[in-house]
Design a protein that fits this description.
Largest sheet: none
Radius of gyration: 20 Å
Number of strands: 0
Shape: rod-shaped
Order of helices and strands: HHH
Length: about 80
């Protein structure tokens, strides 16, 4: 399995983390009142937005491009060792 093909695993895992944080944020807003829940939920929302940004970056990377870069690195190292 190439490194680029692992990218989709990372994307899925990050999206899973985002969904879990969204669930926590929602629970804080619904289940708790008058204990600073809004500030806490707002902070979690800020983290979620940053994770969505990272997720967007991950989704913009081509798995085949990563595989080509890894192979080029391997080839360059082999050439240097000759």
């Amino acid at each position: 399995m190439g490194r680029g093909s692992q990218l989709s695993d990372y994307q899925r895992e990050l999206l899973s983390i985002i969904r879990e944080l969204e669930s926590i944020e929602d629970g804080l807003r619904k289940d708790f009142k008058n204990v600073g829940n809004d500030k806490c939920a707002d902070y979690i929302h800020t983290v979620i937005q940053k994770y969505y940004s990272a997720y967007g970056t991950l989704c913009s990377v081509s798995p085949s491009h990563i595989d080509r870069m890894v192979q080029a690195s391997i080839d360059a190292k082999a050439a240097l060792n000759k």
